[in-house]
Design brief:
The chain is mainly α and 366 residues long. The chain has a single domain, classed as ABC transporter involved in vitamin B12 uptake, BtuC. The chain is built from 15 helices and no strands. The protein has helices spanning 10-21, 32-54, 65-70, 76-110, 122-135, 145-163, 170-194, 197-208, 216-220, 223-243, 247-252, 257-279, 285-296, 302-326, 335-365.
């Protein structure tokens, strides 16, 4: 007796879909960028980390870093390194990784390379949740700030999905999100008008995203949220690969597109909200990091892009924080200003080069 064929799994369907698109074409060698990606990430991250720990006032030579961090150096330079520069570097790495992973989740769930937290109301909602108590002079413990940011981010993302018909289509979600983000930013402007001069300076630096004056307490506040977000990302990545096939194909494979899109937004909120509560919305990291991951390995899927998108997010924030701290020293500039200044043109250039590469590959296959 013949055994009836089993139903295809989402991974099998993704592989068959990719095979169908490339049927009849000669197998191409792996891109060179795939081999260069780990080396480039490690080299850039090491250089930026050394600059973050050594440069500034006081200058600490590289050979003294080990003694300052692990041997209990009680000099002024040792205290600056262990209590200011190291937690700031760790926060840059963690925040960048969270934003890079959240950007990939949103772009894959909505099948749009422009789907970033800044255009879906998530970052603006989180910023509003943290800025409102400052202006209204509400005395709240620091432990509550991530909860306020989480509530604001959920509010912004929820309004986006509700206004777009509960995720009826990716384009509707993106366009509606831009409108919701604009409305939340208008509310932030109203709060800034109500604020006094001191609060206005704090809110202004916070809204642009800054890692200034962050300590180990700020870093410690992120770990509980990461323990929730990490397993959620592991469960979410295979579903994102299926959603790339389109809503109809995903429904045929047993994935409910609307619920999956809502779950992806929830994962993004858990990643973005605690980061925004600590250092503000560091802009456009979630836009640039996924494009860098795709640029070096365009044939991969969401499962393999996700760790590299997180790695590139850490690289972007760490690199941007160096000129933010040193370019106009002794005055610090917000890191979010540098990520926006460099991230938007770089991301657009990556999108254009990726589109030209896909067009050239299609013509070669013909």
């Amino acid at each position: 007796m013949r055994t009836p064929p089993s139903a295809p799994t989402p991974a099998d369907a993704t592989a068959l879909h990719a095979e169908g698109r490339t049927a009849g074409a000669a197998p191409s060698p792996p891109p060179r960028g795939r081999a260069w990606q780990p080396l480039l990430v490690i080299l850039t991250l090491t250089t930026a980390s050394l600059c973050a720990l050594c440069l500034g006032t006081p200058y600490v030579p590289p050979h003294r870093l080990v003694g300052a961090m692990f041997e209990g150096d009680t000099t002024f330079a040792g205290i600056v390194v262990t209590e200011l520069r190291v937690p700031r570097l760790v926060l840059a790495l963690v925040a960048g990784a969270c934003l890079g992973a959240a950007g990939l989740v949103l772009q894959e769930a909505l099948r749009n390379p422009l789907a970033v937290p800044e255009m879906l109301g998530v970052s603006s909602g989180a910023a509003l949740g943290v800025a409102a108590p400052l202006v209204l002079a509400l005395s709240l413990p620091a432990v509550v700030q991530p909860l306020l940011a989480l509530g604001g981010a959920a509010l912004g993302g929820g309004l986006t999905l509700l206004a777009a018909g509960l995720g009826r289509g990716p384009s509707a979600v993106l366009l509606t999100g831009a409108a919701v983000a604009a409305a939340l930013q208008a509310a932030l402007l109203v709060l800034m008008v109500m604020a006094d001069q001191l609060d206005l300076q704090l809110i202004y630096r916070y809204l642009l995203g800054s890692l200034s004056a962050r300590t180990w307490d700020d870093v410690a506040g992120l770990w509980p949220w990461l323990l929730v977000a990490a397993p959620a990302l592991v469960l979410c990545a295979p579903v994102l690969s299926v959603m790339r096939l389109g809503d109809e194909d995903a429904e045929a494979l047993g994935v409910r597109a609307q619920r999956a899109r809502l779950a992806a937004l929830a994962v993004a909120v858990v990643l973005i909200a605690p980061v925004t509560a600590v250092c503000g919305p560091v802009a456009w990291v979630g836009f640039l990091a996924p494009h860098l991951a795709r640029r070096f390995a365009p044939t991969w899927g969401a499962v393999r892009w996700l760790p590299w998108s997180a790695a590139w997010g850490a690289v972007v924030v760490t690199v941007a924080d160096v000129p933010a701290r040193l370019a106009l020293a002794p005055v610090e500039t917000p890191a979010g200003a540098w990520t926006a200044l460099l991230g938007v043109p770089a991301g657009v250039a990556l999108m254009r080069s990726g589109r030209r590469g896909r067009t050239a590959g299609t013509e070669d296959a013909r």
